[in-house]
Amino acid sequence: MVRPGLELTTSRRVDGELMATYPAPGLYFQVTAPASAQALRTGVPAFLGRAGSGPWTTTPLARPGDFASAYPGSSGYLAAAVDGFFANGGQRCHVVRLRDDLPAPGALAAGLAALEDADADLVCVPDLVTASAWPDTADLTAVTDRQRQVLDHCAARGDRFAVLDAVPSGSASTVLAQRAALSGPSAAYGALYAPWLVADGNLMVPPCGHVSGVYAAVDDASGTQRAPAGIPLSTVLDVQVHWATDDLAQLSAAGVNAVLALPGRGFRIWGARTVSDDPAWRDVTARRVVAEIVRRLETFMTDLVDEPNDVRLWVRIMRELTAYLEGLYRRGALRGDSADSAFFVKCDSETNPPDTGATGQVVTQVGVCLAAQAEVLVLTVVRTADGSDVRAA
């Protein structure tokens, strides 16, 4: 018998596979442990903005000093956003240098396209609005059109979330008008934060960098099911606006997440709402947990493209997805008295009748009960022979 920890000293190759050889006839057991699925890192933002120099390609950064080395002499708010991210617990991000000043739609579209293969799950565009005095009569269309462009990108992928900056206005009505203009089918894929922050050096900066750092820190400590709120912000000296009680009530009711100065508690994010009008998707954690599930499903199902579509594949899909969802349940991302009541995975002859198999598709239904909402969400995942897939929520 071959026991764990012992190595075989002889081997032979059969049909291209390395096979162990044994000295005498008999029954032998070899224990092998399947490789565990690599955890997908969350809280990884992509920052798109202006830089005076540096690469045009998507650049991953892992240390606070990496940005200055890659993009020396940068202007705009890209550098400040990256600094705020690392100062508040961020560990890894991507930077895309845009070729034209924003809010040019073509420049933003090209930047988003450059993120196709990046492992980012958050998107921030700190240079969409400026920190100069913002008149309350200014036209918000140029800003909100580009922010909807970012939301549409996240929605089309299904696995990204936009951290959006409010315009630097001292008027709550202006921010509320911006929030109203962001409503639409893709609004569940982003959250809006106000006001702007006074950071080290008395520089007024958009909140997305500091906020995304909180996302990363909370994800690392607890997971996407924990709301990125209530955490003290680092390197913040003040906020642009101290909202009056009535203004704060209106902003919170509309789903704008405020940064507040709390006496003795520092500056904290007060709210974790998306800009969606759909009650099922108003909670940031609900959308991000589903985005994490979508990323896992896509990664796993992509590896099955060349597998025979038969009952063995169905069993493997159900076994591995069940193990993954059980992990989500144990960490508190799914709600239920037991794992059986928190989720289900179905991949069998009912979801894959003969007509479906003949087209080269394997269909899996995944249902989850999110801890952040009372609804049950059912995802239908279709894996086709060419690797493309369709997801429906």
TrEMBL record:
Belongs to the myoviridae tail sheath protein family. The lineage of its organism: Bacteria, Bacillati, Actinomycetota, Actinomycetes, Micromonosporales. It comes from the Bacteria. PANTHER family: PHAGE TAIL SHEATH PROTEIN, PTHR35861. Residues 108-274 form the Tail sheath protein subtilisin-like domain. This is Phage tail sheath family protein. Residues 276-382 form the Tail sheath protein C-terminal domain. It holds the Pfam family Phage_sheath_1.
